[in-house]
Amino acid sequence: MKRRIKELSPESLVVLPVMVAWALLLGGCATHNSPLSATESGSGVRDERPVIGLQHDGPIRVVFQISADEWKDGVGKGLLQLRNLHQAYTDVGVEGDRLQIHAVFHGTAAEHLLTDSAWNRWHEESDGNPNAELVGELARRGVAVELCDTRRVANGWSKADIHPDVVLVRDAYERISDLQFQGFAYIRF
Prior knowledge:
Blueprint: H1 10-27, E1 39-40, E2 46-47, E3 60-66, E4 71-72, E5 75-76, H2 77-91, E6 99-105, H3 116-123, H4 132-141, E7 144-148, H5 149-154, E8 167-169, H6 172-181, E9 185-188
Parallel strand pairs: 3-6, 3-9, 6-7, 7-8
Antiparallel strand pairs: 1-2, 4-5
Helix pairs in contact: 2-4
């Protein structure tokens, strides 16, 4: 059964950034504001379908929940995806006050936010945290990287053990819920 959508509700507009983010994360592609020219598939068939680009002009407000200790290209996968999402929006002209991205870390991903010395103690290594530079870059880009303080305490880390660009939040789930109530689209990573 087909339904026509005459008008998007304000609630629907909150979903659009999530759809864009998932397209970027899963497809690894940039968004486009106009349809692509016809492309030829591997079977030699031309495909005239347009590619939907960014439709919501902002503000873009997204909160990521990052809880797994996953890696890609030598750094935490969640941190890398945050940078990629921020860059994708910047590439299509969404930046500054129009782009607000928060990432709330907890679970085993919490260790991605340690200082070099704390990382070395935690992992019994001497090379420092491979994520430290990326955490600083995200902060410079305006991405709010946040850590659940409950996890920090449970792991026995002092506040000084956490990268200085990381904001401590009382509880991950409370923070994620609070941001959603403020209109942030939720992405679990």
